Fold these 2 entries.
Entry 1:
Amino acid sequence: MSQTEDKLLEHNYDGILEYDNPLPKWWVWLFILTVIWGIGYFFYYNIAEIGPSQHEEYLAEFNTGSADAMRLIQQMNEKWAAIAYVPITDNDALEQGKAIYIKNCVSCHGANGEGGIGPNVTDNYYIHGGGIENTMNVIINGVPEKGMISWKPLLTPEEVQLVASYILTLKGTQPANAKAPQGELWEQ
Ligand code: HEC
């Protein structure tokens, strides 16, 4: 920053005078550097097209994103394809199944499976068939037109297996306020 005294310029606009007040050198250099940098930038991205354009960057990110999404979908499909239609009998696992039932199903099937909005799941009558496979399939696919949603987006294959296994243990428990049987008598 120069310590030289400001000089008055010669011109005079109706009595308004102007100082010869130069910009600080550091500022001028910064300005020149930004101009040089700007030219370089313009050359790099817009003339020589060495750097990727916004559109190319977008496409690159979009493609990685799509590939990730496809991989996740494929992984999910493989998990559902490998689902085991086998009832789980381990007590700790059944406790987990019960927790899933309490969290998601009691509102319609009752605290003890006695039924309500949804059918009684403790009797021998089934709208969609009994046994582990039918039970798991109705949980997975739901009956949307009747108010039973598909749980596929909300539960994992293991959780479906756990909650279905738990429901099967309620069979024959004859809870209070049991809803009248619906569907067909199920015989294995
Ligand atoms: C919003 C209410 C609602 C919720 C919540 C609900 N269900 Fe259902 N569920 C129904 C209805 C209604 C039906 C009967 C569908 C029909 O009439 O075809 C049903 C049917 C079923 C059936 C078949 C019963 C049969 O007789 O074939 C099973 C098994 C079942 N639900 C399990 C579950 C499980 C497990 C959960 C929790 C993860 C659950 N439901 C949550 C309403 C519900």
Entry 2:
Amino acid sequence: MKFAIISDVHGNYPALVKVIEDANLNNVDRFIFIGDYIFDLPFSNDVVQYISKLKNADVILGNKETYLKGLSKDNQSSWVFDQMGALHQIYRELSTETKNFISTLKEEAYIPLESNNFIYASHYTKGMPQQAKKDCGSASFHKKMLESPFSHEQFLEDFRMLINQDDYKKIFNEINAEIILFGHNHLQAYGYCNDKLIINPGSCGQPLDFDNRAAYTILEETHSGFNVIEKRVEYDIEATIQAAKKTKVYECGTIWCELVFLAMRTGRDYFGILFEMASEIASSKGEKGNFFTNETWQQAYNIFISTRL
Ligand SMILES: [Fe+2]
């Protein structure tokens, strides 16, 4: 049995189509989607409809989908922050079919293997230590890469050391499955923790490991064990960006979309850098609250652009 493991599409329909084509060329039997299908790019309905019609697919929730509950309860007249403009417009454009499909999804799944064992799939493993974000987040990956560039093989070594730390071991041991999948940080990796195989397929729609090609991972169960193949697939990034620029989502959240485009072009996480700049400006002005004022958000972006170019 051959599985294609796909995560973090983030509305990037053209990337998803290419990944599915590649998986089919590799004779995959089953797809496992581990969350974050919507938001960031304005093609969320296309992504969800495409996934919902695939045969042989297990689909679970990501944090982006769980935002929907909160948004549906919101009074939309309070949606005045440019920082959130793209997200709010994508939410407004979600179709009933998309929302209905998402409402059927669960947070985790145990998928049977031929060997009578299981694959455990979740967007991020429950109880993952608090420092997980710091240890293996895309923003810290970006910083470390700039300080001292490293190869994917070196990153895999670090990932394997990380998942073998005691606190991670404890979590994985408590999961009754031979294979454990998680995504969320957009960094592709895999490795063993004792006898369990841990796989993060990276991000299909917004990879953040300095490689801008769409990521997914093939897992093959054979008589002698498991084969893992990390795949990267090219798609037309510029055509995707040009199509996104023509939408109302771009109009409503231009700065956010420009950051997404930058991430798509470079495979790098610039979100954290802009947020740090905006936080500094906000605190220097004594601004408080959950969101940055539109003036602060724009000022931070102006500085970000002038210092980056
Ligand atoms: Fe996520």
